[in-house]
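W.,

You were right to be curious about this one. When I first looked at the sequence I had no strong expectations either way, so I just let the prediction run and decided to look at it fresh. Below is the sequence, 511 residues in total, followed by the output.
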Amino acid sequence: MSTRLQVYLICGLLALAGIGLTAYKSVAYGYPLTRAGAEDVWTVEAEISFRGTGAPVRASFALPRVSREFTVLRENFASPGYGFTRSENGGEARAVWTRREAEGPQTLYYRVQLARQRGGEEPGQAPADPPPPYFEQPQRVAAASLITAARERSADPRSLATQLLYLLNNPGGDQNVEMLLRDAQDAEARVQLPRDLLAAEGIATRMTRGIRLVEGRRFQPVIPGFELWDGNEGWVYFDPATGAEGKPHDFFLWQRGGVSLLDLSGGEGSQVRFSVLRESRPLGELARERAEAADSALINFSIYELPIEEQNVFKRLMLVPFGALVIVFLRNVVGATTSGTFMPILIALAFQETRLLPGIVLFVVVVGSGLAIRALLSHLNLLVVARVSAVVIVVIGLMAFLSLVSYRLDLPVGMKVTFFPMIIIAWTIERLSILWEEEGARPALLRGGGSLLVAVIAYLCMNIGWVRHATYTFPELLLVVLAATLLLGTYSGYRLTELRRFLPFAPPTAP
């Protein structure tokens, strides 16, 4: 395998890894590819109220399950004077409050923050065949008659459920329907009735309980419903009140299956009410919360785990590889001439603090003054180390002088001259002065001007909003930048600045 082919293979693997990790973070956790955008976060508070009877209290409350449609960002439990534990049984999480003795009105609170996921509903596993329901003799005859009428108008289990709900919601004087509804007084009983009728046909269902995600809705009760098992699409939700198939967009299923929403001993008159609040969160912040809730390794070992001060440092450092890519392109493809390889990147980073125009002025003043000082030192015949050290000392003194003058003149921009890397500036002054002595003023000015021009171009590229966002949010893209840098390293063709020099050798064009 040739060396060039090895480079291409390595670059391809690096690019695939970087793009793949970036796509995974964007799709799985919603990391935004652009800076703009926000998403709704729903804060749902469940208020559990009851009256204590003076006996030991044990309250078990069903908690929402994480699904592909919604994710739980944060949970809070408020229960003064109560012990609290969290238990899981058969995949169902429940909050358990306990107390030795409670009398009079009691209130427990559970608060959760929800955000939508990018995935759809989970298909689930096929349930076992439902047990046949029990009906008294009169109800059994009425149920059989109702099922027969619905079966004639249906073609599959889903349409059968739709027809049963239609008949139950529109009795129209049908004695069979009225007899069945006579014993179904509360909301959950009216949901259990169509489930029993479907179970008589061997169709599996499960009870659901949910709430409407409506802004500012307070003290809303839980809405019971059911899901029907469809072998092709998994669980399908039905609204028993309307017979509609599928959940509304603003509906959140709090509990799927399970025995009850609340189990209470030691109290009476229990009631569960929900309040809903909506707020907007930036997409980046929300994506990090999603990943933290999922305990993702990409977040546990990422820049976001660092303290804020270090994160601010890395926001700038992550721009350096992209600036290096720009330098490689300008030198290898365009043919720009600079004093040093990466000095323009450091100058471009300094421009991030000083801003572009003030930074250019400060750079020209410092380097020009340094060249003048270097010209004076050249007559003393000093050794290189001493000469460079003297230039560093003079540059530091010049920076301090500019800062003091700017402070007195109330010009804050001049005080940011300290952001320039003084050692690099000193070596730049030394190189330009040697070039001035050996080849003259024009090559030195071209080298210095080229360095400044490349630094300006690198600054403009590094200061693009999307670049700043992508390099910090998706550090995996550094692999793509590395791949592009390696590819540019294999370029050995003409540089753009050399085309003019070789123009006389070009064949004449036909008239």
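Here's what jumped out at me. Residues 3-29 form the longest helix (27 residues). And, maybe more interesting for your project: DSSP finds 16 helices and twelve strands in the chain.

Coffee later to discuss?

I.
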